[in-house]
Design brief:
single chain; alpha/beta; 6-stranded mixed sheet; 4-stranded parallel sheet
Amino acid sequence: MITRRKSLLLAGAAGLAGARRARAAGGPDVLVLGAGFAGLYAALMLEQAGMKVQVLEGSNRVGGRAMTAYDLPGHPELGAAQIGQMYARVRAMAGKYNIKLAPPLAGTASETHQLPMSISLNQRQVIRTPWAESPENPLRGKERDLLPNLIYPTYVAQAMPLKSIYDWYDPKFAKYDTQSLHQLMAAHGASPAAIGLSDYDVYADTTAGWSALDALRKNFYYAWEAQHGMFETAVDGTSSITNAMAAHLATPVMLNKFAYNISQDKNGVTVDCEDGSTYKASFLLCTIPFSVLRGIKLDTPLPAAQRRAVDTMDYSKIVSVWIKPKRKFWEEDGLPLNFWSNGPEERMFSTPSRVQETPNISFYVRGQHGMDVSAMAPQAAFEYLCEKLAQARPSTRGALELLRVQSWPGSKYNRGGYAYFKPGQINDFGQCMAQPAGRIHFAGEHTAKLTTGMEGACESGERAAIEILGV
């Protein structure tokens, strides 16, 4: 394993000769597509090694899926927020740029920290009796004690064969990629009802569409992280980290540079952008999601399996609708503010705010429901979800005000939230999806080998920077 210290030493040793060689033409040595954690982290490493780097970002902001809404009340995080204790690279960036991290406020939920919630099934009103005793609970036996959002993690934990964060790409575990999470749960005794409810809590559209091995890997990582202590968050918002990273680049990030064509020859790489501009460099580091890359003309041959990765890797259909309560409806009905449903409204989450007393509240919709909502105009989507919620929880009728709809699948710069593997895809292209294609290198959270989220993005940027410096 390459440690952070070793990688920086390698960068310093390998980069100088490459930088002198590449800069003979006068332009940048490396173009970086995407100013999220992966692109910014790699760019900083490459600059530290003496290379001239130009980062091109398709949108009008840096950060990628790290997005703090400073313009909304409460400054909610529309994307990445949790910084685990083992997020070494992210924490290093925060420390270097004096970004304060702190434990989450009381009342913050996570994959490993659950909060009380109201439950509605099949568009009926919220269940008032204890879930385990409710006649509306469709589960059987010991399953009846499991809240809906804990069903699939419980079965994954029972089935867990992984012992370390390295195991998921060890060939001896490849058999778990040949089955779906649906099949894994069924093999370990999950009832059809349990699997059906779990369809509303997974990265993929359904449990049948998610590789069991990918589910095992991600859930193992969450548990492993939790063993090392409570995660933290950036006091001034996650975007304060990426903003600081971008501000410390020698060459400023160029915004609104959405690429539509990428080509290369023996002398270097060319990127053509929608605004008519063209950029050239000796190397290209592409950190944009494959869901976006597949829509860009990539004028270079890729191995068949890598091409399949670009063309077929999927991303979660997450839409969050941020709302402001006009009154404290949860005090009126005496129910937990957080809400779970298998209806179109799916979730309502509350997150304490560091800048106001009222919590940040949002609908959180995914899968086909997410795509349905994403296809609507923002106000129509809000009204649709409010009506569905009011049917299950009447106290919310007229109690909500729309702040913003954040559709990750509807964003041309992302086309989805979290990357995930479908059954069979890890075996098919997991090992080759990030390999260099001539002068073009690949990074991004979807290519991380060990970690996930923001740390996975930085891990991948580090790996790709080392590749370029070693050429």
